[in-house]
Design brief:
single chain, 273 residues, mainly alpha
Length: 273
């Protein structure tokens, strides 16, 4: 049974997934600085109005341009493979890692402006510029992640997560030093690189039976993390004490790193058997 996607050759799997996941990543990385700038120049209402206008335009484009594809018929019951799929355990580990990663990301990302203004002492006028730099680092992460995912997906993902733990450590312990700029850039780069690298590993570990579950499951758990992360960030300090949120984020990313290592070890041990 084939375990490779058919949209692109296996040698370009990482680059293809980097392209597919770039949209959501770019939206996350560019949306906050753009919204902050609009809110500072006009008001927060204009920021939401601009978002509504963009959403309307995209809805029209999708309605007009999105191809209408007839789904392939499902396998007959007699043709379906039987028994448990060995890739389920690593997929569940990756889903848990995605949930904890999102929790860590948004526990701090939600309060990044007070983090920069209160903890780092950055002047208010410079905050949009730093957030745009954060977004630019994220775009660099997306661009680099494709080739990395094609050649060194396991090591790259582990290094990226370890670097993000270090970045949150700097934001927690040394936010009022020049190291904050290094940490902010490393944070943005890691966010941009994470999704293509994780998706590449998932598609290599999953089988034809579990590939849809793998991709959909990580999206669902990531969105759960998005919902829970800001609440937990506020619970530990929020805007009043943002370095407490960065400490929480660093711990969450460390847990995500451990889950990823367990998923990779279990998944590739299965594929090598």
């Amino acid at each position: 049974m084939s375990t490779r996607p058919r949209c692109w050759p296996p040698s370009h799997l990482g680059r293809g997934l980097a392209l597919v996941t770039a949209g959501g990543t770019v939206a996350t990385l560019a949306g906050l600085p753009a919204g902050t700038l609009i809110a500072q120049l006009l008001s927060w209402r204009w920021a939401f109005g601009a978002l509504a206008a963009v959403a309307l335009v995209l809805a029209v484009i999708i309605l007009i341009r999105l191809p209408r594809r007839v789904p392939e018929p499902a396998l007959l019951r007699a043709d379906r493979p039987r028994g448990a799929d060995a890739s389920l355990v690593p997929i569940l580990l990756f889903a848990a890692a995605s949930l904890v990663f999102a929790l860590g990301q948004f526990a701090t990302f939600t309060y990044v402006r007070p983090l920069l203004e209160v903890s780092a002492g950055v002047p208010e006028a410079q905050v949009p510029l730093l957030l745009f730099a954060y977004g630019a680092a994220g775009l660099a992460g997306v661009a680099v992640a494709g080739p990395l995912a094609d050649h060194w997906p396991r090591a790259s993902l582990v290094i990226i997560l370890a670097g993000l733990v270090a970045a949150f450590g700097i934001l927690t312990l040394a936010a009022d030093t020049p190291l904050v700029y290094v940490a902010l850039a490393g944070w943005g780069f890691a966010i941009g690189a994470f999704f293509p690298l994780q998706s590449s590993l998932l598609m290599r570990i999953a089988t034809d039976r579990t590939r849809t579950l793998a991709s959909a499951g990580t999206v669902v758990t990531f969105n759960v993390g998005i919902a829970v992360g800001p609440w937990l960030g506020d619970l530990v300090g929020g805007a009043a004490q943002p370095t407490a949120a960065t400490a929480l984020s660093g711990g969450a990313v460390l847990v995500s790193l451990l889950l990823v290592v367990a998923a990779v070890v279990r998944g590739f041990r299965r594929s090598d058997a």
